[in-house]
Design a protein that fits this description.
six-stranded parallel sheet, four-stranded mixed sheet, 19% strand, binds iron/sulfur cluster
Length: 216
Amino acid sequence: MDLNEAKLAGYEKLGETVCKKLNSLGYSAWYVKNKEEALKAALKLIPEGASVGVPGTVTVRQVGLIDELKKRGSKVSVHWDPDLKPEGKAARFLEELSSDWFVTSTNALTADEGVFVNIDGTGNRVGAMAWAPGKLLYIVGINKITTDIPTALKRVRDAATPPNVIRLNGKAPCASVGHCVNCNSTERVCRIVTMMERPPFGRECHVIIVGEELGY
Ligand code: SF4
């Protein structure tokens, strides 16, 4: 086995371990090797004609799901549409939330207890993860898996947030230094921390773990 094959085999072991844990907690979780397989799985899961809400997730865009859903005629709601006027944003947040499916990723997912750890600034993404009335799908790159909650929180602040702030042209200090300084800036994007320990009551939650690095 060469070095790359060994790395991919390690991803598969880790992905399967996490899926087993998640399935024991009430999620429907499975592992796929790459983003092409993730796209196929998501398109199979989401019925044609279903409306889909997608918050500001890099992973879902990298998988190419939004374009494919639009091609087959699904209504896809995104609040980050560059053509959306500021006065339409609040209504779009609600449209995302109330779609038949809410599709996102997670900032981190712990291997030990299967906890989804997220930090949000506006709260729309984490709010919908907990409260969207439709079905939920999480697409999670293998880079998001951490051992436990402390490493998950560290990953979110030091690995996920700085590139996100840079992507959005934010001015929080982590955009300048590349790691978290636990700022008290008015530009701070870390305002709400959520830890989802089980699927919320009454919600159907699907998880696709991808054996590839996706998102931040
Ligand atoms: S607390 Fe401030 S510096 Fe740290 S990741 Fe959040 S926005 Fe960046």
